[in-house]
Amino acid sequence: MTFADLLACAEESEDDFNVTVPEGWLQGRTAYGGFSAALALAAAMRMGGEGLPPLRSASVSFVGPASGEAEVRARVLRKGKNATWISAEITCGGACTLNATFVFMGPVNSAVHLNRQVPPAGLLVPEEGREFEPHPHMPVFLRCNFEVRFALPKAEGKSAEICWWVRLKDRAALDPMVEVLLVADALPPGILPLLTPATPVSSMTWIANLLTPAPITRDGWWLLRSSADYSERGCSSQHMGLWNADGEPVVSGMQSVAVFG
After folding, report:
1. Structural domain of 144
2. Where is the Acyl-CoA thioesterase-like C-terminal domain (predicted)?
3. pTM of the entire structure?
4. Which end of the chain is more exposed for a tag (fewer CB within 10 A), N or C?
5. pLDDT truncated to tens, each residue of the chain (261 aa)?
6. CATH number of the domain to which 221 belongs
């Protein structure tokens, strides 16, 4: 089931909707993080109604495993002249599995123009990237819903960085902001190449700042990069970026990851 189909079939009430998490969107025993975050965003946008400004920032806490029947609820925290804050929560079996706050804000004039969000050097365009070959440790959600290509030439040795081209197999009828959030968490944690395949990892929090009010790309391809810069005592911190197919920055983020081993 595509994400758009899932939203279309959701059982809605005044301030929430209910869905069943499809097996094809699972990552181990829980829903893929981008799936859960996109569900919460869809609820927030529905609560905001017509005239809601573009999404500019998302702060997401992955509280617990999400699977089976899920209730997604949103409420407006504050609506100002130019910005609106909306919180959203997902519960499964009566337990909170995700809590998020979204900030929607219209564009304003600015005298400052700064862009340090540049793609990595040596980047391959999507058409040149080596296709990702399925393997036993590949998550179900990735195999079922995404096309993946390596964005950099194969390097010697291991580093705490992952960089891929990713696109949804079916993105029809999706709001661009929902699509971006659905895609933006598709990479494994940046620390993963330094771990053994059996080492469990789990995202705890994710902050994603939208750098454009209107995300758009070519042929559905998005460049994703995760780079871990710290890992001690079971906690890893990483920076994340997402660019469109022309190298324009779309999302800048940061994530905390639990490492169990």
Report:
1. 3-107+114-259
2. 140-259
3. 0.95
4. C
5. 899 999 999 999 888 999 999 999 999 999 999 999 999 999 999 999 999 999 999 999 999 999 999 999 999 999 999 999 999 999 999 999 999 999 999 988 889 999 999 999 999 999 999 998 877 778 999 999 999 999 999 877 789 999 999 999 999 999 999 999 999 999 999 999 999 988 999 999 999 999 999 999 999 999 999 999 999 999 999 999 999 999 999 999 999 999 997
6. 2.40.160.210
